[in-house]
Amino acid sequence: MSTSKEDLNKILTKLEPLGVFTARPMMGEFLLYHNGILIGGVYDNRLLIKKTDSNTSCGLAEEIPYNTAKRTMYYIANFDDFNQIKNIIANAYNDLKK
Description:
Layout: H1 5-15, E1 21-26, E2 29-34, E3 37-43, E4 46-49, E5 62-63, E6 73-76, H2 82-96
Antiparallel strand pairs: 1-2, 2-3, 3-4, 4-6, 5-6
């Protein structure tokens, strides 16, 4: 199942308070960029963030983005703990922009 633009826009709207996010389509899914840095994606209507050294202790579930993926990513299932999401995204961004 691929992600609809409507579902993508719902996720992007939830992320707006955290800064500038853009999405690029990729084979029915969307790659997620924060301030121009690829930090994750929206796969099957799931927000997945890349695992990095600084966010390994975040306590989120790990999931594969698609069947043939070689690496897991962190799954953000809900937006109840917005501070945790902010920290995970900030850590991923800071690690990946180096």
